[in-house]
Structures
1.
Amino acid sequence: MRFTLIDRITEIEAGKSVTAIKNLSLAEEYLADHFPGFAVMPGVMMLEAMVQAGAWLMRYTEDFKYSAVLLKQARAVRFNSFVVPGQTLCVTATLQKRGPREYVLKTAGTVDGASTVNARLTLEQFNLSETEPNLAESDSMRIQSQRELFAQLWKEATAPNNTVAETQ
């Protein structure tokens, strides 16, 4: 099963930061078990939403050069409050340090301005064909799919290295 935990990117600045939202709905199947009678977004899903936001920042900054972005390290993870159905988790990821393949990001999740989660994440990007040359076509398909999803998430997509904020 694939979880897309970003519903919309509201602001993105290549090489700097991204802001995105996740609307939590009671219709999400995992809430039936987490927890019966007290549905809350699992902490690992909040963390994954921050990873996904950071990955979109990396892809946008690098003009979708890499097919894969993975979590390499999560440090100083703090869960401060619950996210319940009907609430909107606002996720931010701000670049702290950038290497050729890794980004270190300061990430946070809030609901109505109140902190729910924060962490320092290290994400690594690569192409599958770097270790398995026969996967070059898979890389191309994954990158195309990511571009298409990004166009749905970020309605005002522009060329990288531009700052664009969504108009209301």
2.
Amino acid sequence: MNQVSVARGLSLACYLGLIVFGMAWAIRLGGLPRNQISLTLLVLVAPLLIPLRGILHGRNRAMIWSSLAALIPLLHGGTIGWSTDWPARGWGWLEFGLAVSYIVAGSYFIRWRAQTSQ
């Protein structure tokens, strides 16, 4: 396995993990009131679903835009991880780690694939 496919696999796993985690946070983990679940899903998950098709196909432009969309869970996870009690704090740091891992792996995927195609 070359480094391009490893970076693609890691970025795809982290991105799908962000989507699943956003849904799990809104529905179960966040302890949100029932009337705030749809708004939380709209804010956390919907921006991640927009470039999903391009990410699954490995398109550079979709990877770049999705890195910008991943800044929302990065800020959310960092805020939750820094400011709440311990059960939620761990989930916040997990979300933060997934977002950072996706941004870094996606950046390396784009860079290494561009180097191999030259």
